[in-house]
Amino acid sequence: MDQCTVAQFIQFQPPSVKFSNNIPGVVVVLWSAASELVAATASDPTRNNWNLEVGGVMWRVARSAVSSLRQSRRRMLSTAIPGPCIVHKRGADILHDPWFNKDTGFPLTERDRLGLRGLLPPRVISFEQQYVRFMESYRSLEKNTQGQSNNVVSLAKWRILNRLHDRNETLYYRVLIDNIKDFAPIIYTPTVGLVCQNYSGLFRRPRGMYFSAKDKGEMMSMIYNWPSQQVDMIVITDGSRILGLGDLGVQGIGIPIGKLDIYVAAAGINPQRILPVMLDVGTNNQKLLEDRLYLGLRQPRLEGEEYLSIVDEFMEAVHARWPKAIVQFEDFQMKWAFETLERYRKRFCMFNDDIQGTAGVALAGLLGTVRAQGLPLSDFANQKIVVVGAGSAGLGVLKMALQAVSRMSGSTADPHFFLIDKDGLITKERKCLDPAAAPFAKSQGEIEGLGLSEGSSLIEVVKKVKPHVLLGLSGVGGIFNEEVLKAMRESDSSKPAIFAMSNPTTNAECTAAEAFKHAGENIVFGSGSPFENVDLGNGKVGHVNQANNMYLFPGIGLGSLLSGARIITDEMLQAAARCLASYMTDEEIQRGVLYPSIDCIRDITAEVGAAVLRAAVAEEVAEGHGDVGPRELSHMSKDETIQYVKDNMWYPVYNPLVHEK
Ligand SMILES: NC(=O)c1ccc[n+]([C@@H]2O[C@H](COP(=O)([O-])OP(=O)(O)OC[C@H]3O[C@@H](n4cnc5c(N)ncnc54)[C@H](O)[C@@H]3O)[C@@H](O)[C@H]2O)c1
Ligand SMILES: O=C(O)C[C@H](O)C(=O)O
Ligand SMILES: [Mg+2]
User: Which residues of the sequence carry a binding annotation for a divalent metal cation (predicted)?
Assistant: First the structure.
């Protein structure tokens, strides 16, 4: 029996293993051998040596070697030569499958092996050349559409990206990852809103799955119509509250598609393992119901038990086929957003992005504004925060902010939060007070001194409260008008913050330029949809933060997936928010920069994912992922966890294709 060092072990290519088609299979063999070993060391802490059979040869490995083996094993995945990809089709079927298609990039040997010879022009174009060619056509589209309306240009850009998505996913995701700052506004907010509004006319090829009220009783079998064996991440909507655009029925499918594109780009979720879902239970949008070309069910929305039984059936079906898939609920109208979250969060690994993802991003922004004022974080409890919009997002933010205050100060005393909805300031006097809003409703005693009362208007509240922060999640474009913004100049804060978080851009409570113009240059500004930084003259720039849940949901999903979490706990969400909040340096925060640039979204997502994973382990809900069990997860240091998360991110490259019948 040979004694081996870790280096030898890693480099070892078992002599008896033959690899068909020159596939670099050694990586696979060592991966599984290393897994066995790591599992063995974890299960028997008293033993010092292990015998391991690799490719018919026995090796002896010492315990001391195992920790570095564990790390090398992880690194193997990321440094390995692109592994083979098994394909069960041949010829033209491959060219028409965007997952396998490489267009003119198929090497000649592969064309022979897969029956592609003659189906493509003879010249092989490299991935890099294809990339450059696509970017050139994108740039020339930009040039050729100059002067046309924003909507026309944005839709043209969306179309060219969507065509690539339909044809060649590898190239699509590579251009998306490399140019995320330019392309996020097209595949995500704001253009995705426009796409949803025009979806029935734009529809060419289906993407994702559609479960409708007519499918009741069929979902358990329908779920098997999805072609992928494994699904990791599902984003589902019922289309009832698409961004700030209201009920768009089946057309809301654009949102799960856009969110999952961000999952691939930011979290490196393998696009073969994502599933956008539309739950079509009808629509109450009269215009759509009357539209001949509307593609969804032409009936009013199901309500009550009928509605819930559809969602229940879907959740059971998903769980039966992919018990470890994470389900993200997105853009459900408030009553169903809260109801489904409560109904499923203890049974399935799921979360509601609008309530929980948004809350974490907003909390990170709120803590950032405390730092921006040069105050210790403990001062958060003293911040006067006016939240405009008492829906799923606004209430989610306040709930998480309240948890943060009580954790920091240990007190449950009512913080200085003011909540406004379409009927004005919410107080305990409100008739039919929504129970979800009740914890934030002001008592008469609290506001009397300020001269406020039930239903006071936004401008009255801002003038009287002089808040440190004005945060909009109302979906009402322009509601932070000149008067309101000017009133923020009297804020008690040395650096007041204005967050116009509603999407898409037309629904933002104010624009960045308006905020800096009317509220002053000293503000901190955040918006849900992107705005350009504002030129303040004299070389000064008003920084625009994109306060969007895209900074958190990819990490929440990825961390939950890699931990194999049974459920997603509040502590996992808090950990995500804390991680984002502490990501920026003091110097950046002083400049009003609260969130990292979207260009580094993969980095921040790796950190958030690791924080969520570690919280899942600490909360004892982690069951492990693949061959990495909970015990191994719990032995990882913080840095090792981040590396583990990074190593598990999918990255688009052309893998060698191997045909199997
Ligand atoms: N930036 C982000 O990451 C992010 C995340 C989630 C939601 N959002 C945006 O937030 C908005 C609201 O989402 P939601 O899920 O909470 O919607 P919702 O429908 O649940 O809630 C909207 C709330 O706004 C209130 N409102 C309506 N008109 C108002 C007015 N004139 N004055 C004050 N309040 C008014 C309503 O009474 C309701 O309480 C949407 O535009 C959405 O795009 C942004
Ligand atoms: O979709 C977004 O851009 C953020 C958020 O989930 C929203 O509903 O507005
Ligand atoms: Mg949303």
Answer: 330-331, 354
